[in-house]
Specification:
Elements (H helix, E strand, L loop, with lengths): L8 H30 L4 E2 L5 E4 L2 E4 L9 E6 L11 H18 L3 E7 L3 H11 L5 E3 L5 H4 L6 H6 L2 E3 L2 E3 L11 E7 L5 E8 L8 H7 L32
Length: 244
């Protein structure tokens, strides 16, 4: 942490008001970006995607649960992994508290991972989560939405992620994080309206906002190197993050 200047209350207030101008500009810009996001064109989803869910197989349309909007958290959890990604788990902790509000605002929320359903269910019980979580194992869903990558892609050293081809080694993983949003009309047609990846997902995690208010901030050397699963604080870090 850098050494701060100690000032009088009046001097602090002057500096704080100067900083407030930038905060207000950021708020206005965030409103503008959100409006632009809502105005993006849509793509109709014609391909049939089927997921394994606790109550049986479900199509993408059935994941809406009767609502018109669906938020998918592309949670990093590949087949055979001993546990889900710590950074995705941090976000999932936050989403749990938002569920009742989303569901009463015509928005369903579902986690989707490639790990088999039994592995997801075991980890969900460990974490104490309630949100729906389905497996896309055996489906093209994760690959079509660019959050899972084949051995052949990784062997080539270049993957398509966050709307660009990336060769940086920090992205060369079989699974990466993201969100996708869908709309279902009265006729049952499903449309893809939005996706975000990497640091574009950060606003869904309130801990970042709180820490950014503090003198030490996120206090990280590598992005999210401080993050642990909520039952592992006090243990060594286990890498898995959404780089810039």
């Amino acid at each position: 942490m850098q050494q701060q200047t100690i000032v009088t209350r009046e001097e602090w207030l002057k500096a704080r008001k100067a900083h407030l101008r930038n905060e207000k500009a950021l708020t206005r810009m965030r409103d503008l970006v959100a409006a632009e996001r809502r105005a993006l064109p849509w793509v109709r989803v014609d391909k049939t995607y089927v997921f394994e869910a606790p109550g049986g197989r479900r199509t993408l349309g059935e994941l809406f649960g009767g609502r018109s909007q669906l938020i998918v958290h592309h949670f990093m959890f590949g087949p055979g992994w001993p546990a889900g990604c710590p950074s995705c788990s941090l976000e999932a902790d936050h989403a749990e508290g938002a569920l009742v509000h989303l569901e009463n605002h015509d928005a369903a929320y579902v986690r989707v991972s490639r790990a088999p359903l039994a592995e997801l269910e075991a980890y969900r019980r460990r974490m104490g989560w309630k949100a729906p979580w389905v497996s896309s194992h055996g489906s093209d869903f994760n690959y079509d939405f660019h959050v899972s990558f084949t051995e052949e892609e990784l062997a080539e050293g270049s993957i398509y992620y966050n709307f660009q081809m990336l060769e940086d080694p920090k992205y060369q993983h079989s699974e990466l994080p993201g969100h996708s949003v869908f709309y279902r009309d009265e006729a049952g047609q499903v449309f893809h309206t939005y996706s975000s990846y990497a640091r574009g997902n950060e606003e869904a995690t309130g801990a970042f906002v709180y820490l950014d208010m503090t003198p030490k901030g996120r206090n990280e050397t590598e992005i999210m190197d401080w993050v642990r699963r909520h039952d592992e604080y006090g243990t060594a870090a286990e890498g898995c993050s959404s780089a810039a």
